[in-house]
Amino acid sequence: MTAVRAARVVVVGAGVVGLLTALECALAGHRVTVLDRGTIPDPGSSSYDQHRAIRTLVPGDPEGTRRMVAAHRRWRELETVLGTAFYRRVGVVTAWPPDRVAAVVASAAEAGVEVTRLDPAGLPHLGFPAGATGVRETRAGVLLARRVLRAAARWLAAHPAVVLRPHCAVTAVDPRSGRVELAGGEVLSADLVLVAAGPWGRELVGRPVVLHRQTMLYLRPPDRLARWWRTAPAAGGLGADGRAWAVPPGGGTLLKISSDAVCREVAAADCADEDQAPWAERLALAGVLPDVGRYTVVAARACHYTTDAETGGAQLARLGPAVWARAACGGTGFASAPLVAGRIVDAVTEVAA
Ligand SMILES: Cc1cc2nc3c(=O)[nH]c(=O)nc-3n(C[C@H](O)[C@H](O)[C@H](O)COP(=O)(O)OP(=O)(O)OC[C@H]3O[C@@H](n4cnc5c(N)ncnc54)[C@H](O)[C@@H]3O)c2cc1C
């Protein structure tokens, strides 16, 4: 058996991908430096939200489903590693047109993912498209995202092989040499570099991506519905056009709704000057919550993600012998973070062998 030495790893970006990768590398015996231009965690990162949904079924994609089952398993274990409860396994319901349901259920059965059909009348406070059928995935639910980030940052700060460097903006990463340049002129080198700078990564990684901005609305349910929402699942395929989703409140969070209909392509991941009110209004009228007028609107916020310009997906790419990047961060970018972390640990282990 080949002995593995402790390698030096530099992670650029302390969102969920950077933090989990640092954690897994430290657990594997490597030395890790995490750089972020903001605090760690950074409230401006795209991971820093109340919650993110996790599900395992990728209809029609058994390999993708197998990977998400592995990610789900790792999230459960991470609750123990980090000593923090952050997963609300409330299930995820997706609304499907009747002619698609049989294929989705068959796809789940083939992949060994447990689902049940559901009459939308059983979830009267969620707005389903006319005629839709619900499919409920039980091995799914809500990750309390901020809680994950804070727990991971605490764990890393206490680990002797990890150095956290907040307020360190990276200005360039050379894919061939692996040199990492910081604002101020400092240069770092490592056996492996991961660029996990979220929507801002495109400034460091020269790969074509499409930048998207999406507005989310945070609401407090009326008192009389608080009990109902306590056990409600996350849900997708909602609203009159079937493009909206809802993440239920719980664990100290608010109800959140959004829709692909308010997702737009933008040129820059900075929306400080953009008025969110018109987008919030569209969301409120999307039919996600049948009695939306009874809910208290607490906030509207925009968040960014990127998709690969060719495939439309998120992507982990090897840019050079020792440089990797989460080149695009869209879709299931939070839930799938353990998969990126696992792949990087494998790559570091190869380098260190
Ligand atoms: C509206 C919306 C809803 C979503 N819902 C879900 C969901 O339900 N489930 C799911 O799985 N995913 C979801 N996602 C996707 C998910 O949130 C992201 O894919 C994921 O959080 C990205 O994490 P990250 O670590 O790659 O990037 P980020 O969390 O954005 O972290 C990047 C970090 O890099 C730092 N940084 C940037 N540039 C530099 C630099 N030059 N130098 C140093 N540091 C730098 C930033 O400060 C930041 O802290 C959603 C995304 C959006 C926008």
Keywords:
single chain, 353 residues, alpha+beta, FAD/NAD(P)-binding domain, 9-stranded mixed beta sheet, 6-stranded mixed beta sheet, 25% helix, globular, binds flavin-adenine dinucleotide
Description:
The structure is a single chain. By secondary structure, this protein is α+β, with helices and mostly antiparallel strands. It has a domain of 160 residues: 3-Layer(bba) Sandwich (FAD/NAD(P)-binding domain). The chain is built from seven helices and 21 strands. Helix 1 runs parallel beside helix 4. The longest helix is centred in the first third of the chain and has 21 residues. The N and C termini lie close together (10 Å). The model has no long low-confidence stretch (mean pLDDT 95). The protein binds flavin-adenine dinucleotide. Flavin-adenine dinucleotide (FAD) binds next to helix 1, strand 3, strand 14 and strand 19.
Concise account of the structure shown:
25% of the residues lie in helices and 29% in strands.
Radius of gyration: 21 Å
Number of strands: 21
The CATH class assignment of the domain at 1-50 and 144-208 and 309-353 is Alpha Beta
Q: The CATH topology of the domain at 1-50 and 144-208 and 309-353 is what?
A: FAD/NAD(P)-binding domain
Low-confidence stretches: none
Oligomer: single chain
Secondary structure: helix percent: 25-40%
Shape: globular
Strand content: 25-35%
| Contiguous helical run count | 7
**Topology pattern, helix = H, strand = E:** EHEEHEEHEEEHEEEEEEHEEEEHEEEH
